[in-house]
Prior knowledge:
By secondary structure, this protein is of the alpha/beta class. It has a single domain (2-144), classed as 3-Layer(aba) Sandwich (Rossmann fold). The chain has helices at residues 7-12, 20-37, 47-54, 59-68, 80-91, 96-107, 118-125, 138-144; strands at 2-5, 42-46, 74-76, 112-114, 134-136. Helix 5 crosses helix 6. Helix 7 links the parallel strand 4 and strand 5 (134-136). It has a five-stranded parallel sheet.
Amino acid sequence: MKVYLDTCVLSRLTDKPSHPRILAEAEAIEQIFQRVSVGELEWIASTVLEAEVRKNPNIERMIDSLDLLVYAATRLVPDSQALVRAHTLQTIGYGAGDALHLAVAEQGAVDVLLTTDDRFLRLTSRGSGSPRIHVENPVEWMKRV
C-alpha cells in the first residue's frame, strides 16, 4: 500500500504533545513509520514535501523532518499535469501547498494521502476538486488498516 504524508504529518512528530489530539496523531504517525520500516507500507514522498520542510524556521525540527525522508521509497517530482492540476485546485480554494501535495500524490497513484490539516481534510471530504485519491487523518486511517 502506497502512502503519501504531507508536511503537517511530518511536523506532528516534533510538536509538543500538549493536547490529546497531538499525542494521538504523533502515535499514529510513529506506527505508520514502523510499518514503513518493515515494508508493510510504501511511503511516497515528493520534492514538494522536501521544499516545504526546508522552509521550517526551526532548524532542529527541519533536520528531524528531513532525516525521515530517507525512509521514502520514492521522491516524486511534479510533472506538468500535476502542476496544472495544483493550479486548478488552488482556484477552487485549496492552499498552494495542499494543492501541490494532492496533485503529486495523484500523480504517484498513492492509496492514501495522510494529513493533520483540518481544512485540507474538509475540502477533500466534500469532494472539492474531485480528489482522485483518498485523503485522511492518520489516526482515523490507522483505525482501519
